[in-house]
Specification:
There is one protein chain. The chain is built from seven helices and five strands. By secondary structure, the protein is of the alpha/beta class. It has two domains: 56 residues, ATP synthase, gamma subunit, helix hairpin domain (Helix Hairpins, Orthogonal Bundle); 223 residues, Pyruvate Kinase, Chain: A, domain 1 (3-Layer(aba) Sandwich), CATH 3.40.1380. α3 links the parallel β2 and β3. 32% of the residues are buried.
Length: 292
């Protein structure tokens, strides 16, 4: 049976842990608001970009960019967007569970985030590249990931490139998801995907005529590259919003559990202390009766 000293030490330790988790909760909460706003702001832009690509595809006729080439998938590359740090609940575990759908013999993996790199190395999957990114992903970071995937596709090292990430739904809900990055889907599919994230954009959709200069094919050659960078940036923003939301919720639950444990330990301490006092009183009374 633990002594009162042991219980006091444990109460002190749990209180210290609660202070740490409370501080981490506040930090994650402040970052969460910015990350969520960034992810939500990307979605209307994605809807408009899909619409522009749709009109480009219509105006270019049979012309297709090399990144749109559809071929038999013999080798696949998968970009895994995880977190750099832990303490975010089951976010990474749920994400890594999606990787079991891929054949390890024909799949190469690109890690974005330290946790993904550690998981891929631990499970002995083929890791061909590793990238990191900040809380607010920069264009250079997105471009580096996008360019690496494009080079693998154009060189024939991969016939398709998928992205496995965590999609932000709300503060309490984040869902592992997969997007096909290459070959770039048809413009209609890209637009439908974007509108599914912004329902009001689908409701307000109307035909807009665009004038492309010097010609649609030239514009598509340049726009496709920017569009690829943008898609990577959007998925990174979704992952960051999910990470900070999951961490804030996890740290709040940890803080609540620590406070509840302190209450239980305090009750146990008071009971033990009262039992010791009662025992001492009985010993004193028994000694007095024996002398009396």
């Amino acid at each position: 049976m633990p002594s009162t000293r042991d219980i006091r030490r444990r109460i002190k330790s749990v209180k210290s842990t609660a202070q740490i988790t409370k501080a981490m909760q506040m930090v994650a909460s402040s970052k969460m608001l910015k990350a969520q706003q960034g992810a939500l702001n990307f979605r209307p832009f994605a809807a408009m970009a899909g619409e522009i690509m749709e009109h480009l595809a219509e105006d270019t006729g049979d012309y297709r960019h090399p990144l749109m080439e559809v071929r038999e998938v013999r080798k696949r590359a998968v970009i895994v967007i995880s977190t750099d740090k832990g303490l975010c609940g089951a976010l990474n575990s749920n994400l890594f569970r999606e990787l079991s759908k891929y054949d390890t013999a024909t799949t190469q993996f690109i890690a974005v985030g330290r946790k993904a790199a550690q998981f891929l190395a631990r499970t002995k999957r083929k890791l061909v590249a590793e990238f990191t990114y900040h809380d607010t992903p920069t264009y250079a970071e997105c471009q580096a990931i996008s360019k690496f995937a494009q080079e693998m596709f154009l060189k024939g090292e991969a016939d398709a490139v998928d992205v496995v990430f965590t999609r932000f739904i709300n503060t309490l809900s984040q869902r592992p998801d997969m997007r096909t990055l290459l070959p770039m889907a048809s413009a209609e599919n890209l637009q439908a995907e974007a509108r599914s994230q912004v329902p009001q954009a689908a409701a307000e959709h109307r035909r807009i005529d665009f004038l492309f200069e010097p010609d649609p094919a030239t514009v598509m050659d340049r726009l496709v590259l920017y569009f690829m960078d943008f898609r990577v940036a959007q998925l990174l923003q979704e992952a960051k919003a999910s990470e900070h939301s999951a961490r804030m919720v996890a740290m709040k639950n940890a803080t609540d559990n620590a406070q509840q444990l302190v209450k239980q330990l305090t009750l146990e301490y008071n009971k033990l202390r009262q039992a010791n006092i009662t025992k001492e009183l009985l010993e004193i009374s028994s000694a007095a009766m024996a002398l009396g």
